[in-house]
Amino acid sequence: MPYFFEDLVHRYRGGGSCPCGRNHAIGAKDVLVGRGVLESSATMLGGEVPAGGCAWVLSDERTEEAAGREWKRHARGIRLVSKILPGEPKPVPTIELVRALATEVRAAGPSVIVGVGSGVIADLAKHASHETGVPNWAVVTAASVDAYSSATAAIRVEGYHRTLPTAVSEHIACDLDVIAKAPRELFFDGLGDLLAKIISHLDWKLARLMTDEHYCPVISEASLGSSRQALAAAGHSPPTRFRPCARLRTRCSRRGSACRRWADPGRRPLPSTRSGISGR
Ligand SMILES: [Zn+2]
Question: Is the pTM of this model over 0.90?
Answer without folding.
Answer: no
